[in-house]
């Protein structure tokens, strides 16, 4: 590819264009639970664009935003997923949070706090998810 | 009342017993949005126990727990309420968070993060709630 | 219409066929909040079949079933709608329940019980709905 | 049964009366996933009226309505169930849609579209459901 | 512990203070599904306060309230959990309701009624839960 | 800006990079309800990135995908938002669908179909939303 790049704006566009997938892949892999390529391979026959949107938007545009520090981002993610009862994704992010050094006790406390808003069943299901994740890590 | 209190355990029981309502009232009033007594008066004819449970459990037992620092508690609250679409309570806690010095930009960022999990409608509704709250504060 | 009806089965079929709308209309009107014909008129241009399904199925097939006594049916309805946060329909059924002699205190207690499952925001919203309904009735 | 049927209205009533269960059964069996009688047998001890309402109302009154063409009905069903996270029913209708010739790629695209509204967890869960259904069909 | 208790108010405070956990434990064990101590042991490492809040608030403060008779409380619980799709907790309370003498047919009828509000998928999932519970009890 | 673009790949990257906001803006404006710039202006103080993500992802990446024809996309959107009870966004898309020539009767039929899955309250709320939108258009 031969390009005479004389504009910093084009330089940043090139970087940005290439990076949504890269940024998202890096962010996903910080959780140390699944590799971006593995996610893409798992779904390329079923839904070719699924993994692309997850990595580019959810992990690239949103989860990698530096506006909130990384610990806060993970705790907020766990709060939202607990309230929603999204157990599969909750366990994924619990693994990620623990890998990043967030203490399981903090996760337990987030769940109890959220339970006042989303009710005792959601609190119980999320606490069970945490228990399963901790067992898997032994 | 005459009691010979020789047990520290009884001393703490007395403190705890009297304090669930007090602790909860103090915590509620930190939001600087509504006074505990006003809440109780508003509902005493309709549902005598409603305000009691809200203050004793939600604000007393749960929201006042020191396990997470107060900023984190408020941000997690906003995250859960955004995911749940609980607009009334969301606006209340947005007011409280702003009164406690959390920047509106942080709240906006929490909403965008949660929106990846609970969808664009919830993200839009919560952003609108923030806009209304900021307008009310002008 | 001339028919030689010699079969009890046909007789019951005629009764059933004619009655789904009638049974549903009678059940709806027991709430004493809205008349079946008014409901049908309100929606006949927008969605001709909407009122028909609401009256025939929801009120006819389901709400009029004698399996549970009528008080229990109303209390279960209020419980489900509280848990779901379906405020519009909740107020309708609160009006109906009060018209049928269920005490507002019982409704308040149902809401507090359900709130342990669906969380404090739903408990607050439903209690507010009850307060509004009681004010409208003064 | 001897009836002197001189009224076309009665003729159509007889047809309608007998047909809610028949119409519903035919519609259910178009999915080619389960037979109406099997559904009824599975639940007749636990909940005698359950299968009746599912077949008569959901499949009879609603899913068989010709207002929308059959492909559209299936796609809307998949959209709603994806948004609701109703995985069991979603897999049933995915099987039915595929049996009726809707391409799996179209289903994947519906899920991605709905995911913008109901969030990435619902999009992931529905895509996983599609993957499982496709594996079952190999 | 030596105390000269001359105040009935203190006497009742002592009773109340000690009893939230006791009252809750008694209420939980009426379901005859799990013992309070077993619940606490199961979660004491993962989330030390989880079981305490469940027992003290959900079962102690809320579920043991005599305002509604015990049968009604169980039926309302089943209604709310059906509407919410909270299958784990629903099965627990179904077991408890059956242990307390509520007939499975009543539970089936509650589910069908709630299904008109929360939709056929929730009705199907709850009916399936009932079927599984009844099978476990054979 | 001077660039020697000799690579078709770079040419398409430039097009893509510049276009997510453009593509999204065009798609949003097809609804003929609000202009992209107006949306951005409305939220730039409250949440600077909100409108960007809505336009780039929801309308750019997702709603403009040609995989499903445009009518189908709108009908699926209405189905999902009805099931979710997202009334604000539902009214927006109802306006858009009507502007694009979809008949109100089709929208009414989608709502009735979805109501079998998400329940009668959601069916009623969506039908009311349609009624309000049609009134606004007179």
TrEMBL record, chains A, B, C, D, E, F:
Where the record annotates domain Carboxymuconolactone decarboxylase-like, the positions are 48-132
What's an example of a GO molecular-function annotation for this chain? peroxiredoxin activity
* Source taxon at top rank: Bacteria
Q: Which InterPro entries match?
A: 4CMD/NDH-1_regulator (IPR052512), AhpD-like (IPR029032), CMD-like (IPR003779)
Which one Pfam family would you cite for this protein?
CMD
Signal peptide range equals none
Q: What is this protein called?
A: Carboxymuconolactone decarboxylase family protein
Q: Which organism is it from?
A: Halioxenophilus aromaticivorans
């Amino acid at each position: 590819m031969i390009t005479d790049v004389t504009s910093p704006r084009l330089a940043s566009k090139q970087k940005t264009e290439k990076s949504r997938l890269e940024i998202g892949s890096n962010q996903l892999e910080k959780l140390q639970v699944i590799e971006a390529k593995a996610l893409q391979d798992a779904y390329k026959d079923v839904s070719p664009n699924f993994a692309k949107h997850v990595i580019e938007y959810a992990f690239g545009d949103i989860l990698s935003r530096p506006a909130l520090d990384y610990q806060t981002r993970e705790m907020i993610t766990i709060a939202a997923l607990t309230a929603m009862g999204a157990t599969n994704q909750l366990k994924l992010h619990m693994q990620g949070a623990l890998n990043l050094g967030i203490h399981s006790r903090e996760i337990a406390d987030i769940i109890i706090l959220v339970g006042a808003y989303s009710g005792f069943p959601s609190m119980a299901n999320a606490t069970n998810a945490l228990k399963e994740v901790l067992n898997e890590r032994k």
